[in-house]
Design goal:
This protein has helices spanning 32-48, 61-73, 85-88, 91-101, 116-125, 144-148, and strands at 6-12, 54-57, 79-82, 107-112, 136-141, 153-158. The protein has 165 residues and is α/β, with parallel strands linked by helices. A six-stranded mixed beta sheet has the order 3-2-4-1-5-6, with helices on both faces. Helix 1 packs across helix 2. The longest helix has 17 residues, at 32-48. The protein is globular and about 45 Å long. The model has no long low-confidence stretch (mean pLDDT 93).
């Protein structure tokens, strides 16, 4: 494998406030546990990745909060951008948009929601994966085109339950 390998890291947002009539789904915030889990998993991911070049997040509050906690845990400064499709789009729309956004980057993290991220993980890896809250999967390929067309390889997967002592 060449050193120019690309990584697409999918992250499901962390534990958020319960759905209620008082809070719009879009505005749900992370709970105390969600913030703690995000920090622990972000520290783990920071050890696994040499560098993250770009974070693309759903604009929903819980996804943005998760992305911000991750970005603060990384040694290097990471550019963060929002993409509406990560909140309301389907996998085909997301893949099409990502093919535009990933140009010029090597290691990109995207933050979003289920069931869309489970469907996206299956589309990209061929494996029936389930992302728990704060679950992370890393898919590698020679190019992002390979990854987005399903030719990437699942490199690793982690969530709070898998690293609990």
């Amino acid at each position: 494998m060449s050193k120019d390998i690309k990584s697409l890291i999918l992250v499901r947002h962390s534990k958020a406030e319960k759905r209620s009539y008082d809070v719009n789904d879009f505005d749900r915030k992370l709970t105390k546990k969600g913030k703690k889990d995000s920090k622990e998993i972000a520290d783990y991911v920071d050890k696994m990745m040499k560098k993250v070049d770009l974070i693309i997040t759903s604009p929903a509050i819980r996804a943005k909060e998760t992305a911000e906690i991750f970005s603060k845990s990384f040694k290097s400064k990471v550019k963060i951008m929002e993409e509406d499709l990560l909140y309301e789009g389907n996998t085909e729309e997301i893949v099409e948009k990502l093919s535009e956004l990933l140009k010029g980057y090597y290691n990109v993290m995207i933050f979003g929601h289920n069931p869309t991220f489970d469907e996206l993980a299956k589309k990209l890896t061929g494996d029936d994966l389930h992302l728990r809250k704060t679950g992370v999967i890393c898919i590698e390929g020679e190019t992002f085109e390979d990854i987005l067309s399903g030719k990437g390889k699942l490199k690793w997967m982690v969530d709070p339950k898998s690293i609990e002592l």
